[in-house]
Amino acid sequence: MGGRARFGCGGGTAAYQCNSLKPRLALTGGDGLSEETCRRLTLIATVLGSSMAYVTAINVAVPAIGVDLDIDLGGQQWIVLSYSLALASLYLVAGALGDRLGRRKMFMVGASAFAVASALGGIAPNAAVLLVARVLQGAAGALLTTGSLSLLRSTFAEESGRAIGIWTAGTGAVSLAGPPLGGALVEWASWRWIFYLNLPLAFGAVYLAWLGRGASSRREETPARLDVLGAALVALGLGFVTYGLVQGGEQGFAAIAWAFALGAVALAAFVARELRARDPLLPFFLFRDHDFTLVNVATLLIYSALAGSTFFLVLFLQSVVGYTPFESGLLLLPSTVVMLALAPRFGRLADRLGARLFLVAGPLVMASGMLLWLRVDDRALWDGLLPGLLLYGLGLSMIVAPITAAAMTSAPERYSGVAAGVNSTFSRLGSLFAIAVLGLVVSLVFAARTDDPDLVPLALGEDSPEFVAGSTDAFRAAMIVAAALAVGGSAAAFGYSRRPEAGLAKERAEAAAVPRVRLDPAAPDCPSAWFVHPQRQELADLQAGPATTDR
Length: 551
Description:
Elements (H helix, E strand, L loop, with lengths): L34 H20 L2 H13 L3 H29 L1 H20 L4 H30 L3 H29 L3 H5 L1 H14 L16 H24 L5 H20 L13 H32 L3 H7 L1 H21 L2 H17 L8 H29 L6 H34 L15 H30 L6 H11 L22 H11 L7
């Protein structure tokens, strides 16, 4: 009775002695499931997990929370801001943890932690407990987001573009349902149910991720120590920069300059630390790959255009055109539906044809839609607004999956968690940067077009001719700047040259058997990863023979 039995999803195996058999639950996630089934379960798990991190239902409930817990306006703003600060400052740390400790494992930890934080928020008796819960949700959300993307990369490999497209559509659908669902819960139940609703989602994400644990035989962790000091420095630096971008629009950037100064000091110390660290949190040699650098610059610019344009479009539709908040939300549905329907298809095409075509064309289509919005000055849907929204949605669907997949595949697979953290950080900071900068553009143009110092641009309840003319000009200026940001993202993506991942798969398989000794910039014997001498590397390559990538 000393035989061995093999069970598990796909390539997963386990051994046990028959004389020490123990009762096993029927739902063990292993027996009889094919690798393809496990991959699908993993994809569903990432959609459920990331949906918790992206859902916006809490925004609708903030006023009700303020009344119930007696929180003033400043405190209500911190209900949203505390989550954003934790999320943006911990993306990179969360990605590095996934690379070191296991992406699936850290994804499951993130989902479990989000559930605990949500339960705490649901029972919060006062503002202090609620803010602690929101910070914990932000930290767990960083693990979920980076864990989802890196897990999809390691699970789907050359089909990661299609998988990320489906992931984007799924999380987008949940985000779209968030505000009306949150409003319904606040009106007919309690705002606390918005937090409790995360509990079954978290359970489903953890269980499905565990069921699909055999979806890939690839190693999901890198044996390296976590640079705790580097993690603290980058979290502080990004946290101060995020705070400055969020508060600068309200308090003025001069008044908040201290936050940018502290952020710059912390980030400079982080760079100095990483260049000397034996196991750097962020290996800077990744940026020597021009594709990795260009796709993240494109992410910064494109997501700046995306966030800034939609934010000020909604304000303009309500304050000047005269739509209600519900109507203005419905008007955004066409672009969202187009994106949800087409994003997986464009992700699949990018896997076959390469991402460059879509990264260049998508932002240009988006920019053309924004420029059509310059014609909007009344409630006529077809005179610029709806055609612009459809073009905007088409351009968005062309880039959301390819740009994320390109950022992931531009880095070696063992650093996919870090790559996800870098790309998520660039997209989040780009969104905050755009709202702050476009807000400054709106204020300057409005002040130049009006004489009344008491008027506020794009404010509700004002309908004087001077206000309408000034707000319209300010909105148009903001859309021109947003379109320019999108064009800049397209220009950055034009230099992207990586071939389709599917085309590289055969080369990697053929070269995998070739013995190889390559100077690895991340190896412990090479702590100064940024300064590997090119001639030294060339000599090592000649001695090793044909090179492979991402073994």
